[in-house]
Design a protein that fits this description.
about 180 residues; mainly beta; 4-stranded antiparallel beta sheet
């Protein structure tokens, strides 16, 4: 059976960014998803469409076809006092590189990365961690099958969450393409 719309597809993959492995499926735990439902990057799906189990493909996605270019307006200086917890500055999370879950004025959840900590402000980057990056994938199609009613009940199949993203993918959400972790 070939990879096609509305089929349950399992793939092993390795994502390399800037010469380093950024993410990969775990041995025996392929990434499973319903093809054509928007769970993965469109160009990722296009690269594996029509493939059969056992077929391998390597491809590169430019930033525009991956997680977009870096948006300068998404890098902002926030007042340091918004990081107060119970009247005390949350210094344990205020360091360069720290990923902090936050919400915008409308309550939308977003992940910010600390870029700089100054005397009164914290520079946060709300771009996707893979924005501006060229993505190099090596993918092997493991299986293709019809979708079952159980498949439609939701849950995560990214291989990092044990099937339940209610708690999020934690450290694996960066680069995770399951669609449930962001």
């Amino acid at each position: 059976m070939q990879v096609a719309a509305n089929k349950m597809v399992a793939v092993d993959y390795k994502l390399t960014v800037d010469g380093q492995v950024a993410d990969q499926s775990r041995p025996g735990q392929p990434l499973e998803f319903i093809f054509g439902t928007g769970m993965l990057l469109p160009k990722f799906e296009a690269a594996i469409e029509g493939k059969e189990p056992g077929e391998k493909v390597a491809f590169t996605l430019a930033p525009a076809d991956g997680y977009g270019e870096i948006i300068e307006q998404a890098i902002v200086d926030l007042p340091k006092d918004i990081f107060m917890v119970d009247g005390k500055l949350a210094e344990d999370i205020l360091f360069v590189g720290s990923q902090i879950p936050m919400a915008d004025a409308q309550g939308n959840r977003m992940l910010g990365i600390v870029k700089e900590v100054a005397e009164t402000t914290v520079k946060m980057d709300f771009n996707h961690p893979m924005a501006g990056k060229t993505l190099n994938f090596e993918v092997e199609v493991i299986s293709v099958r019809d979708v079952t009613p159980e498949d439609l009940q939701g849950g995560c199949s990214c291989g990092h969450c044990g099937g339940d993203c209610e708690e999020g993918c934690g450290e694996h959400s960066e680069g995770c393409d399951c669609g449930h972790c962001h």
